[in-house]
């Protein structure tokens, strides 16, 4: 019983022996912005940003026309406007995005029950043993992309590989509307050529730390010992050691355990007093509580996030022996964390709150649920 890589790049099986997994990562192309362009013909072919146009607004998503100017998600709206004076800001329609996401999820379900959503617009699928008995993961990815386009009039990019790390890299390799396959044969050498900033799990701060250590590519990362990486990056060191070799044994989890639930809000004007901050924080607290009050989960850890006018950010957290039992308790704890922040040297531009250490043994959803306000 052996496995072979077909000339087409598709991962094929020739027997029942131990075989590589077949993982697909599907990522919708500029999802929020693409939905807005689909539903409003006047926006097609033009630079679009989903988010707030006001001075304190933030770009939630940018069309590919806007990205050519350097506009990116999470960018301040004023910066985006400076980069692209013709940028069109559109108010987000999250109900529409969720409905489209459900359509896409239904298509995934035709092929496998092992689906791990990462957000509304991307997910991992394990199709090693799929519902249609299709031997080629590449064929499944092609069919899914075609069905998504037919059902939603939107494009999706797909990555196919033998683990999650490489599948995610592959889905970004030929965006937009692309498909790329990384076979077991090409995986390790492919990783060596990549800049470490392209690795999932290596953010800007970690990339900078790696660069200071002389680690700029996957090959540089592979040259480091496990001990060296653990000394410099702690528990993440083992993960970096193995992905540099194209190894990632993480399973696709159909029911991910939710780690935290949070919400935040950026204000039109800076807040300077404790009373005003409490008034602004109360609806954020209520929003988070509504997300869990009728469900099975409860939390023991509350984290407060404060961002000042100069963009400096702090967090304050408190963990209790027993779960937070009511909205009133939650609010009181949030206000108690907020109190020591005052008096202020700078005004507050953003407040956020999250609950973690969730107590239910089985919860469904993304690892981090962000609630829009």
TrEMBL record:
Q: Which HAMAP family match?
A: DNApol_IV
* Species annotation: Methylocystis iwaonis
Q: What is this protein called?
A: DNA polymerase IV
Residues annotated as site: Substrate discrimination = 32
| Reaction it catalyzes | DNA(n) + a 2'-deoxyribonucleoside 5'-triphosphate = DNA(n+1) + diphosphate
The catalytic site is made up of: 122
**Keyword Magnesium set for record:** yes
The record's section on InterPro entries has: DNA/RNA_pol_sf, DNA_pol_Y-fam_lit_finger_sf, DNA_pol_Y-fam_little_finger, DNA_polymerase-Y, DNApol_IV, IMS_HHH_1, Rev_trsase/Diguanyl_cyclase, UmuC
């Amino acid at each position: 019983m052996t496995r072979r890589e077909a000339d087409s790049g598709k991962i094929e099986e020739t027997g029942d022996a131990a075989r590589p997994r077949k993982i697909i990562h599907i990522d919708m192309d500029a999802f929020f912005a693409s939905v807005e362009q689909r539903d409003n013909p006047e926006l097609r072919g033009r630079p679009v940003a989903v988010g707030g146009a006001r001075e304190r607004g933030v770009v939630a998503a940018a069309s590919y026309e806007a990205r050519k100017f350097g506009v990116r998600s999470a960018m301040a709206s004023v910066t985006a406007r400076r980069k692209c004076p013709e940028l069109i800001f559109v108010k987000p329609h999250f109900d529409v995005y969720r409905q489209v996401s459900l359509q896409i999820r239904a298509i995934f379900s035709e092929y496998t029950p092992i689906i791990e959503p990462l957000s509304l617009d991307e997910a991992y699928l394990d199709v090693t043993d799929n519902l249609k008995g299709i031997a080629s993961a590449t064929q499944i990815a092609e069919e899914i992309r075609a069905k998504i386009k037919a059902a939603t009039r939107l494009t999706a990019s797909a990555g196919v590989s033998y683990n999650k790390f490489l599948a995610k890299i592959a889905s970004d390799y030929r965006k937009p509307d692309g498909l790329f396959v990384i076979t077991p044969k090409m995986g390790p050498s492919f990783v060596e050529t990549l800049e470490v900033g392209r690795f999932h799990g290596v953010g800007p701060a970690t990339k900078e730390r790696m660069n200071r250590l002389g680690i700029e590519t996957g090959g540089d990362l592979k040259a480091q010992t496990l001990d060296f990486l653990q000394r410099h990056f702690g528990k993440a060191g083992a993960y970096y050691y193995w992905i540099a070799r194209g190894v990632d044994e993480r399973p696709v989890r159909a029911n991910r355990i939710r780690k935290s639930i949070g919400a935040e809000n950026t204000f039109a004007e800076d807040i300077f007093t404790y009373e005003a901050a409490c008034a602004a924080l109360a609806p954020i607290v209520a929003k988070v509580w509504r997300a869990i009050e009728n469900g099975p989960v409860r939390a023991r850890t509350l984290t407060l996030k404060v961002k000042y006018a100069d963009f400096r950010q702090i967090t304050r957290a408190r963990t209790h022996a027993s779960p937070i039992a009511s909205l009133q308790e939650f609010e009181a704890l949030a206000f108690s964390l907020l109190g020591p922040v005052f008096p202020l040297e700078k005004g507050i531009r953003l407040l956020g709150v999250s609950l973690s250490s969730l107590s239910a043994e089985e919860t469904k959803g993304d690892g981090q649920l962000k609630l829009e306000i």
